[in-house]
Amino acid sequence: MQTAHNQMLHAETMASIGKMAAVVAHEINNPLSGILTYAKLLRRWLDQGETGGKHRQDTEQCLDLVARESRRCGDLVKNLLTFSRSGPMNPTPTDLHMVIDQLVRLVQPKLDMTGIQLQLDLSADLPPLSCDAAQMEQVLLALVSNAIDAMPRGGNLWLDTRLLADREEIEIQVRDDGSGIPPDILARIFEPFMTTKESGQGVGLGLAISHSIVERHRGTISVQSELGRGTTFTIRLPLNGHDAELAGVAASDARKGGRP
């Protein structure tokens, strides 16, 4: 029985690795193909002495595209490293509402462009939270970005915080009235590479990374969704003993020297 169980676990692991390799290869191959095409075009123009004059604008556009596609590859690698927990944490006492304020300023232009109304309900008695502020902003940005993508023709987005005094936790909710998530995807929404987006629009790591970050903060993240009605993500982060726990995680990461 144990041998059969081990074989099943090995098969599942290999299947996950195979899926990851296929997705990463596909997502990196696309921008690399573009970079190679632009490089060949630039080489031809250089050989013909046509990078200036009428071809100057085309040359600049090619270079911009090379830079953009290179960033795509870099972003994918960065997300994979984040998901593998290789980056050290920097826990500090953080005003969560300041993190949210920075996030709002970041996404407001896109909210305006898509006609999405953002409504904030932030608890006035929220104490400082010991967390890695940059990573927490990354989590909230992923949730808000998903909500925006679910409302291409506009809608409503709510971001709420409250103190659960009886549980000694802080709760954060990100809600939208967008398209919702299909049930078959909802059940696996936090798995790596789970995405409904088209190729080149994301590889499905955002929510997996968010789940990983929240777990490193000793918290939980859950989701409820209904097709045509919207989606709600709920994050709960503990208060008691948080500094000691996070300090231990940070020290462990530092000892690893940034290696997974």
Give your account of this protein's structure:
The longest helix is centred in the N-terminal third of the chain and has 46 residues. This protein is an alpha+beta fold and 260 residues long. It has two domains: 82 residues, Orthogonal Bundle (Helix Hairpins); 165 residues, Histidine kinase-like ATPase, C-terminal domain (Heat Shock Protein 90, 2-Layer Sandwich), CATH 3.30.565. The chain is 54% helix and 18% strand. The strands form two sheets. It has a five-stranded mixed beta sheet, covered by helices on one side. The chain has a two-stranded antiparallel ribbon with strand order 1-3. The C terminus is likely disordered. The protein has seven helices and seven strands; from the N terminus they run H-H-E-H-E-E-H-E-E-H-H-E-E-H.
